[in-house]
Write a structure and sequence with these properties.
262 residues, alpha/beta, Rossmann fold, seven-stranded mixed beta sheet, 11 helices, disordered N terminus, S-adenosylmethionine-dependent methyltransferase activity, EC 2.1.1.-, SAM-dependent_MTases_sf
Length: 262
């Protein structure tokens, strides 16, 4: 069963917002200036894109293949250029961006090798790429697996695991510079916000399990919400920081280098 992202766009902003903690982690690793060119690859309805523009006043761009998602992003800001594109074709010239990020996008990409080649093309030499995703271990630890256990295998088939991402990136012109892993564990009661998100199928994964599995899980979730039962909560996120490498350039020996400049 495929997800209709144009249909999902109608509910997306009711349940999905930018993650300020993730944005703060961008700032820990990247210096932003007014002339910095930033790409939000797979920007959806532009929540992260608009937040970064508002905070940095850099040149922020968004690329999104789903027309309805992209139009909602366009409606949010006149100061950001949003373009139609995908992992096969990013509609910008070579070596244009200083920083590219993608949040919860890589599991939607059918061929990450093609994606890395295209991201490498539009990223400046020495530029940074940040991929925000989850490891398979983090998927297994999601607290809502208790309610929707069949989601685990569905998600692990969609999400490339971290070693696979790193290997593919390394084969397509990137060097891994840092792996930033966050795992938060604590007890809390189910929030109304999360219940609404599930009721609206605000995550694409809810469209990929059977309706029976979804309805049974939702019933159990509502039951725990109504009883205000305290549950073990886990949230995991992995940020992979990559640099465009110089390996595509010929490395000259000292004599060859001297010959090349004489």
């Amino acid at each position: 069963m495929e997800t209709d992202y144009n249909e999902l766009a109608k509910k997306y902003d009711l349940t999905r917002k930018e993650n300020i903690d993730t944005i703060n982690r961008f700032f820990e690793n990247i210096s932003f200036y007014e002339g910095t060119n930033i790409l939000d690859f797979g920007c959806g309805t532009g929540n992260f894109t608009c937040a970064l523009k508002r905070i940095t006043n850099a040149n922020v761009y968004g690329v999104e293949p789903a027309d309805e998602m992209r139009q909602r992003a366009i409606d949010k800001s006149e100061d950001i250029v949003f373009k139609k594109g995908n992992h096969e074709k990013i509609p910008f010239r070579d070596n244009f961006f200083d920083f590219i990020y993608m949040t919860d996008v890589i599991h939607h990409i059918p061929d990450i090798g093609v994606m890395f080649k295209e991201l490498n093309r539009v990223l400046k030499q020495g530029g940074s790429l940040c991929i925000v995703t989850e490891s398979h271990k983090q998927i297994e630890s999601r607290f809502w697996v208790k309610y929707f256990p069949t989601i685990v295998e569905v998600e692990k088939k969609r999400y490339p695991d971290i070693p696979e991402i790193i290997e593919c990136a390394s084969n397509n012109g990137f060097m891994i510079s840092m792996k930033d892993v966050t795992d938060i564990d604590y007890k809390h009661v189910i929030s109304q916000k999360f219940l609404i998100l599930v009721e609206n199928k605000g995550y694409s994964m809810f469209h990929l399990i059977s309706e029976n599995d979804y309805e049974c899980g939702l019933a159990d979730l509502r039951n725990d919400y109504n009883k205000q039962i305290e549950i073990e909560y886990n949230h995991g996120e992995t940020l992979l920081w990559l640099k465009k490498s110089f390996k595509d350039f010929e490395i000259l020996s000292v004599p060859d280098l001297l010959d090349s400049i004489s």
